[in-house]
Description:
Layout: E1 2-6, H1 10-16, E2 30-35, E3 38-44, E4 50-55, E5 73-78, E6 81-86, E7 96-101, E8 107-111, E9 117-122, E10 132-138, E11 143-146, E12 161-164, E13 186-190, E14 195-200, E15 206-213, E16 216-223, E17 229-233, H2 238-249, E18 262-264, H3 272-284, E19 291-294, H4 315-323, E20 328-332, E21 336-338, H5 344-352, E22 367-369, E23 372-376, H6 382-390, E24 404-408, E25 428-429, E26 433-434, H7 435-438, H8 442-457, E27 471-473, E28 485-487, H9 495-510, E29 516-517, H10 529-539, E30 545-547, H11 563-578, H12 580-593, E31 598-599, E32 618-620, E33 624-626, H13 633-636, E34 639-644, E35 651-654, E36 660-662, E37 665-670, E38 678-680, E39 684-688, E40 704-709, E41 716-722, E42 736-743, E43 746-751, E44 774-781, E45 790-794, E46 817-818, E47 820-824, E48 827-836, E49 841-845
Parallel strand pairs: 1-8, 18-19, 18-30, 19-20, 20-24, 24-27, 27-28, 28-29, 40-44
Antiparallel strand pairs: 1-9, 2-3, 3-4, 4-17, 5-6, 6-7, 7-8, 9-10, 10-16, 11-13, 12-15, 13-14, 14-17, 15-16, 21-23, 22-23, 25-26, 31-32, 32-33, 33-38, 34-37, 35-36, 35-38, 39-40, 41-42, 42-43, 43-49, 44-48, 45-46, 45-49, 47-48
Helix pairs in contact: 3-4, 6-8, 10-11
Amino acid sequence: PVSIFFRLDTTMWCTLLLFLIPICSSRWTSGNIDSRNQEAVVTSYDFGIWSFTLEDKAYRVKDAVVASPLNKFKEMTDGDHKVFEHGSLGNSIAASVLKVQQPGNTNVELHVNHQLGIAVSVNDKAPENAEVGATFTFPGAKGIYGIPERAVDLALKSGHKYRLWNLDVFRYQLEDTKGIYGTIPYLMAHSGSKTVGMLWNNAGDTTVGIDYNDAGIQATWTSLSGSIEIFFFPGPTPMDVLRQMAYLTGKQYFPPLFSMGYHQCRWNYRSEEDTLSVDEGFDTHDIPYDVIWLDIEHTDGKRYFTWDSHNFPNPELMQEKIAAKGRKMVTITDPHIKRAAGYHIFDEATANGYFVKNPQGTADYEGHCWPGTSSWLDFTNPTVRDWYATMFKYDKYKGSTPILYTWIDMNEPSVFNSHEVTMDINAQHHGGVAHKDVHNQYGFYQTMATYAGQMLRSQGPPHDTTTRPFLLSRSFFTGTQRYGAIWTGDNEAKWSHLEKATPMLLTMSLSALSFVGADVGGFFDNPPEELLVRWYQAAAYTPFFRGHAHLETKRREPWLFGEENTRLIRNAIRSRYRVLPYIYTTFYKSSQEGLSVISPLFFHWPADEKLFTLQDQFMLGNAVLVRPIASPRSDNHGNIEVYLPGEPGEKWYDFNDGTPYAAPQSHVIVCDDNKIPVFQRPGTIVPLRERARRSTTAMRNDPFTLQIALDSKGQAAGSLYLDDTHSHKFQNGAFVHRAFHFAGGRLTASEYTVTTQYTTPAAPVTEQFSTNTWFERIRIYGLTSKPNEIYLEHGDDNSFNYGGLQGVDAQSIKERKQLTFEFIDGVLTIRKPVAYLMMDWVITIA
């Protein structure tokens, strides 16, 4: 066996400072250590990331990591030691320093200055039983997080073993440490002053044991197959670790705006008439929504990429009617393929050998799923993925139109008549790879192929440019964030499942998977009306927002629960559309900087130990704090406790009425049926759209509101991003991103120029975006007295940078303009300033 130890203490830190020198040499990409006929390779990446790999013949995960190694290691000899020095870019020096010892060629000791402690043991067994393992110690850590997916607390618990093995678990149990639909083998350890992370790049059946002890927190990994490949993230903050993970495995893709609206789904809408009736119901009851979904019953006998000709005889006309209102549709395409001659997917896959093979490799693997006897496409094969992508072309997917998007389910994969309801671990994939080695990546590869299919279909008429894909997958792995959204699967209509949704979504988010949500109301069973309302109110602030229900539940459209509950649900969904400009801006920043859309509070206040286990609140972006209500009024009596962190003297503000609340302390918020606690962080500016519309398309030209929460210095900052909402033209500069700053009684608008070391470099500008959108309202929380006057001054016309204002004489609006306002209960509202988004301007409060 090979043992590797990482230690951290004050002495070690001081010792390692001797090696902190800039490294500019490009001679070394990796450092190699020969150990028991296995080559240990240490490789550097940007931002101080490095990896440790034992080179052997075991299967190594592909496609999860997208970053390229750097030529940043320099290897030197220091007596009996080998020293690897990892330089960094910019002005900082030595992001990592490794000191490698080889006593007797049986023990390798690596010291690292990033508060990481590790003991790694590799069990070198026979290839047919090649178990590998490692134990990592994080000295001083007070919390450890990650390794989704399961319905457990945010902070992982001592004494528990967590399994990472993607499974279709019927009515998954809360607090069960076994895995469910997806896996990201990633941990983040946090001490208050330091955060580090690691990725165990293995797609096999894995367990992680967590132990809190005097040395810190230990995580013991064991994988039943595959290889040892470990990546380390130096931090030093939670946000740094997340950005480093996103850099290594890919940032969240930037979805189209409609996908951030509300989605209506159930298993199943029965027919075209039923589907269009639901669509009309939203208009009748004045409730906005963007996407209606069709589950497996819409197909011809569970043959995906087909339609039931009796119930859906004219799918294109149905979609045209949906599209006329600016809305979209989603259909489901599971990975199992009905074994039926004459079904074009089956025929082509069979003729080309595109299915996973049985353990002997002599025939297609067969099992049972929704269509009956089925086989599974081998998405690990790039040729199969390329072929599958062509199935989304309009001439292949008959009845599909440009407004049709994709839901992929059952892709753990689920096999009804097999052990653990999944594929035989010895089934054979492309290249003779056993299923046990790639199991946790199977759904990831279907997601990759589906994304490619949506891209392929938009390359040509009727599209003038490629449209951004939207797809939802149940299964996931490291890197899935590059392709689609994820939901938490088949939850239940229980208060406990609403409560557990928050830590589940936060765990995925801190693991670099941002576009996440849970079925509103619970998939199984029928929710009490109060629970359904509270779920809508909470989910309105999560990245993915969809109502969904089981075939055997009662119909659950929002207007079926009485007039008062319809009003409450309408208000909840409208609250989502009101905050969409902020959500869209946050998604854009996530795609560029690697941050998550929602996050635990300790990400923002890492030294506050009250936050290390706090899981009933979350931050949306950096400005909005949300506290879902996950208990009935009979238990909480409408009194909801909220902890508001921050510096003494700062005040948070109720997001909707501006009531101030002091930080850092807990408050009991009185909530009626129409309210959950939502707060705006001091020092932030949030863009909103406050006109009620029936979809995101209908909001496209609406004016904006800026809502400003001042900090104790009377300052605030924020930004607003806007583009055409659906294409990839933003990658060529066709967007507007404006920065807003408030200080000294002046609100200024200018071009957003903030970048970090993690920001994706901008491409050359070859396209432009133009909009006449303006601000109809400025709302300020935190002013202490009523102003005497307020006036607007537009600056020089720089709108040509974005394509120019259309039909507006920029010079004519440059004159100083007195603004009307009101000051009530500490809230200043400036009405109709008509300040244009694409121009620089200043509003002065005197």
